[in-house]
Amino acid sequence: MYKEPEILVGLDLGTSKISVVIAERDSRFQEAQIIGVGYAPSQGIRKGLIINLEQAVRSVRQAVKDAENMVGFEIDEATVSFSGMEVASVTSRGMISLGRTPRQVAISDVERVIEAAQSELSIPPNRVTLHTIPVKYSIDGNSGIDDPLGMTGIRLEMELQSVIVPTTVVQNIINCVESAGIEVNGLVIKSLASALGSLTDEETRAGVISLCIGGGTTGVALYTDGRPVKLSIIPIGGDHITNDLAYVMKIPISKAEEVKKMVSLNPEEVDQQDLDVDVRGRMKTFSITEAAEVVNCRLEELFGEHVRHQLAEFSLHMFPAGIVLSGGVAKTPGIEIFASEMLNLPVRIAEPLDVYQMPPGRNDCEYTTVAGVVRYMTSRERNPYRYIETPISELRSGAAQITSSPVGKIPKKSGGDRTEGIRGFMDYLKKSVKELF
């Protein structure tokens, strides 16, 4: 008997844009086929956090409408990926006895050892565990077991990765999306979704670092032996580069965004030619070398300080597959060479793993996250213990209030040699505007 294809919908709440992917899965096949991708500019979201509910809801509606126009039918539910400032990735361990005599591991044993590992966590009352991810199992001291079901032993142990986020952030996300008329049937942290949308199985087994550099944040996912061992968010993204350029060059944000897209990090492409920009009907001339230096300074902070800090507890030898870059900033010419020299690892720019299914113009590194949401859904269905979520019904309760932090003013810098002092000035600027985006 013929069954209607199942429709899967992923929605990515980004600082720069809202993306929606619609996939179709026939009952005969496990893999979903992407049939539509929509997007809209993001408003009311800063650093992955909702600061204006009305604007954010309007952006979600526009993105959903764009996707619906592509496929020709309406959607009413989605799994949502999001970012945020206070994301903690915590490792815990659990152990249970299978009995005095060896026996096979059952599903109930896996549930018990997960509960044992979770009991080791101390979660504040204003936080919630979004993801519970088994990293590895061991039976009778033999580690490296991927799936213990059916294996025989007397002692089962596991290492668990828990992603903990503020409860109010989650409730605000649900409130926003459902106010736009879309029921939330699942949540996934952006760093995990972007990794699933861009990393190959071979890379995750070998050991790899996924960096998704979006508008307001950078998602980090570290993989070894096919499992994520750390998921986190760095509060720096492309908007910080845009703001730096706007402040240094004294031009509007919209023009700074244009300049950012003209900059290359390839030394041979950065010459002394001037850059002409139309600012309010008047042409202003800037040094392309100076603009490139501003971008360099912010990316040095990202890779040299923040990413290195995320890797501090790990050896770089654990990641022979290197770094995979995604997100809008990954389109900057020369960024792969720049990051490779900073971190001493090979770097590649990601495309969505399902790139052949994505429509033209929506099939590059900016869309890996939304493509990864679909892969997250299908992966959870194939293996319910791969990613364990807190039920949406438990997260939905309670009305969350949305507030924005006050934005500090940037003091003016006194005179001095502009060219010689650009790096020192950028160090000062980075400290002054950390809360601006």
Structure in words:
- It is a single chain.
- The radius of gyration is 23 Å and the shape is globular.
- Strand 4 (45-46) and strand 5 form a beta hairpin.
- 33% of the residues lie in helices and 29% in strands.
- Among the domains are: 88-166, Dna Ligase, domain 1; 201-349 and 405-437, 2-Layer Sandwich (Nucleotidyltransferase, domain 5), CATH 3.30.420.
- It has helices at residues 53-71, 107-118, 167-179, 190-198, 201-206, 238-249, 253-262, 288-310, 335-343, 368-382, 392-396, 422-432; strands at 6-13, 17-25, 33-41, 45-46, 49-50, 77-82, 88-97, 103-104, 127-139, 142-145, 152-153, 155-166, 183-189, 208-213, 218-224, 227-234, 274-279, 282-287, 323-326, 347-349, 388-389.
- The longest helix is centred in the C-terminal third of the chain and has 23 residues, at 288-310.
- By secondary structure, it is an alpha+beta fold.
Q: What is the strand and helix layout of this fold?
A:
Elements: E1 6-13, E2 17-25, E3 33-41, E4 45-46, E5 49-50, H1 53-71, E6 77-82, E7 88-97, E8 103-104, H2 107-118, E9 127-139, E10 142-145, E11 152-153, E12 155-166, H3 167-179, E13 183-189, H4 190-198, H5 201-206, E14 208-213, E15 218-224, E16 227-234, H6 238-249, H7 253-262, E17 274-279, E18 282-287, H8 288-310, E19 323-326, H9 335-343, E20 347-349, H10 368-382, E21 388-389, H11 392-396, H12 422-432
Parallel strand pairs: 1-6, 6-13, 14-19, 19-20
Antiparallel strand pairs: 1-2, 2-3, 4-5, 7-12, 8-11, 9-10, 9-12, 9-21, 14-15, 15-16, 17-18
Helix pairs in contact: 1-3, 4-10, 6-7, 6-8, 8-12
